[in-house]
Write a structure and sequence with these properties.
By secondary structure, the chain is of the alpha+beta class. The protein contains eight helices and ten strands. It has a single domain, classed as 4'-phosphopantetheinyl transferase domain (Ribosomal Protein L22, Chain A). The strands form three sheets. The protein has a four-stranded mixed beta sheet, with helices on one face. It has a four-stranded antiparallel beta sheet with strand order 6-9-8-7, with helices on one face. Helix 2 packs across helix 4. It is globular, with a radius of gyration of 18 Å. The chain starts with 8 loop residues before the first helix and ends in a 6-residue tail after the last strand.
Length: 242
Amino acid sequence: MICKPRRAPSITEFFPNAILEPMMTLEPNDAHVWIFPTDISTDRCAELRKILSPDEVARTGRIRFIASRGELRIRLASYCGTRPERLSFGVGPHGKPFLREPATPIQFNLSHSGSLVALVVTSGIPCGIDIERVRSKISDQALAQRFFCSRENEWLRSLPEDQMRHGFFRLWSVKESILKADGRGISASLSAIDASGVMDGTSSLVSSFWVTELNVAEGYTSALAVENRAPKIRFFPENSPA
């Protein structure tokens, strides 16, 4: 059953500055991708902090965490027709969060890096998303040998030298999105996945997952993985960098 949310005026009433449509509807093959910043004002931080659970508040006082969790609640609440503070989350056997309350088939996945957060929401299709800020102070060659399979390393070495650093993070995002869609995340080995076909354009499938790279912002890489089929992707907010 697809969750078709009703209008939720309480969300915009309590959070008039939120970049949010009052009502969001998911079709069976939709994948809604949200991109939002974590470098928010102290006033916005205080506003979002009010809708977090006591456990979330106790975990950290960092603005970026409060931004990502608060905005996650606001977005998901708009699909379920409820107030963001009423959402309850559970955690799967390998650490992947899911919506416990309200009961809904909606699936989601969240990733953050640098000053951006990426969120994907589907009507019940297993999904995973990853975003990475391209960083210079990282030993990408050593990590590539450790976490990438031989064909992936061959693809990486085939790139022009000035593209290898960016290529490393592109591949990392693709592999992470697959593991997160599968629900295993960091509990599984990155090297066990061969995403070379996605990188060289010969295939969009890795195991049972359809995978694509996302263009989200300058200086970032991102990827989306969805089980079984290519979804209809829509980006939010409408003026997001994607």
